[in-house]
User: Fold these one by one.
Assistant:
Number 1:
Amino acid sequence: MDVKTTASAAPDEFSRSTWRYGYHRQAAFYLDGCKAAGLDVRRFVFLAIEKDAPHLVAAYELDAMDVELGRTAYRRDLATLAACMEAEARGEPDAWPGYGEAIQPLALPRWAYEQEEAA
């Protein structure tokens, strides 16, 4: 079981948080890690606890398809990590993905102008 604090423990909101924060990857990674360690773990449950009073609580378990999606994602992430570490060891610049080191132009989203005009 993993305890997660959240703004909302409602199923639709916590489902979005699960995607946004990669909890499905975590569940698959932990389940696979336990299996590799010889532990007989059959379930991985999230205990979602709301941050604000009345601190409602809900327990959730991802279905097998969602865990498999997380498994695919974490394995891809590990492959990227390995490739970046190998490239760095070879002295290749920019081995790690990122946003670049140069100063980049930035613009406010269009909706910001609409909100400002409405005010």
Number 2:
Amino acid sequence: MKVIGIVGSPRKNGNTELLTAHTLRAISEEGLDTELIRLAGLEIKPCNACMVCREEESCPIDDDLFPIYLKMKEAEGIVLASPVYFGSATAQIKALLDRVGYISLAHGKPFSGKVGGALVVARRAGKNFTLAQLTYWFQILGFFIPGSTYWNVAFGREKGDVEHDEEGLRTAWNFGKNMAFLIKKLSG
């Protein structure tokens, strides 16, 4: 059983990545395999509405998306993480969600019944909208979404700030534990 954490921040080793790695440690402690995927440094172009994905399970846009899509299909769990950029998720993760969503909806909804959830890091505001934005994606594709002890948000601006948000870290950790529990239950 595997869970992948996709970090939608354009900044490597930043707060969003730290929070995601923290959550993945909680999951791996429960015996599941984990993998962290950084969108930073990858090219994920926006959907151009060509509709090729309706005919075949592919995307003709030549970038780094399709190998990530295949990893997402193979995983039992997916964590999507984004910092807040002007009250919303980053363009990188939004492009990934749009294209992965369209491909999957046209090809049997392969994410239905998987477990997923979002993590959000904010300097101050925009966290609730961004968390909802990412959560809606999980809902429309049929994921089961475990809860935690609070909303899956943490605070930080400069690299490493999130490590001082004890409640945010605890919430992310508990989310990871709940995610692992649910995946195990669903796997029988």
Number 3:
Amino acid sequence: MSDLLSYKNYNGTVEYSKEDGCLFGKVIGIKSLLSYEGDSVKELEQDFQNVIDEYLDDCKKRKVEPEQPYKGTFNESG
């Protein structure tokens, strides 16, 4: 089981704020900050998908290439 949301090749985190009583996350693997939230897993997933769709639509309107998520591994040298 993965702790990440996935949609249109983008991945996002799932976190819980005890203080606010809500779920939240951010899209990972890109430089742009795209965040989302919800009061349930279903709401969180819907807001995540909406954020991705809005990002892609905005890039299209501005005629810029959307960032592609990083694929690969990080190597630690020790």
